[in-house]
Design a protein that fits this description.
This protein is α+β, with helices and mostly antiparallel strands. It is 29% helix and 27% strand. The protein has 8 helices and 18 strands. The protein has a 9-stranded mixed β-sheet with strand order 3-4-7-8-11-14-15-16-18, covered by helices on one side. It has a 3-stranded antiparallel β-sheet with strand order 9-10-17, with no helix packed on it. It has a two-stranded antiparallel ribbon with strand order 1-2. The two termini are 27 Å apart. The N terminus is likely disordered.
Length: 353
Amino acid sequence: MKKIMIYISTFLLTTGTLLCGCRTYINTPYSSAEYAMGTIVSNTIYADKNTGREISENITDELNNLENNYLSWRADNSLISRINKTSENGSTVMPDDKASLFFRKVLELAEKSSGAFDPSIGKIIDLWGFYDNNPHLPEPALINELLPKCSYKYIKYTDSGASSSISLTSDIKLDFGAVGKGIGCDSAYQILKTSGQDVCGAVISVGGSILVYGNKPDNSIWNIAITNPRKDNDDDNNYLGILNIKDTPCFISTSGDYEKYFEKDGVRYHHIIDPKTGYPADSGLISVTIICNDGLVSDGLSTACFVLGIKDSLPLLKEYNAEAVFVSTDKKVTITDGLKDIFTLKASGYITD
């Protein structure tokens, strides 16, 4: 799970309506909070009430479709579940065009990150019990037994142009949890695009992956806050800092060690597993926020970069034309060049690199 707290400036110059280069819009956005993909989905849409409600409902419906028919390994008839069953019987699954796009992006990211992001480690993730409400330290022998069998290289994807197929060549379990919310934001973007001039701008939050779309009616900047990974009871410290977003569409995702974790003998064990060790990533980071132009990529990169650490992440970020905010265990905040003019540190106790 990944979580970013949203702070949206809604200061308006007048009441009534304003022009924003498309249609005439009511200044107050349509806002809703729904439940889909196992998380809260927050929609803030600058459109008239009926249009905003319809688009919000369409987004929720599509997220449920993605979860139940494509991404969830728990849903018996989902694409991922059907593919996982091929590890038992050697069969092949023929994905539709939507799923083929997921797999191309996912396998490309796994390859380019040298396996720091790897969707094949579902069985190792299961050992830790984070998603069964029973987090615990697994037996090392169980991890060592599974590690050699888990690799994205055991996912066989072929694309002939006219059709594609997917099968597994090892007894692995696919888990798309590290990209699912980003895929949801990509789908929300497509829905907003088809609305044309009916929507001026929007912020869609799927759990912690965020889509910033279009403009506000007054053309002011979108203010998006990044969660403080070590927040205390001081409300002023709830967020680490603010991103001032002007260029859209923009996708933002954060991975941190603060969402799901337990402590044993003074050691924090979190849910972001390093595919090379089978244990929680130990790269010196406690939070990574990624900003780029693709939801799936932003989601997957935040995991990959958390595993890799700052230095090894930089070539990967360049590969995807992405930017990042890194937070180290010593509370040092490192900001890539493309964000230095739009990120403002807010929380106390941190220093910028």
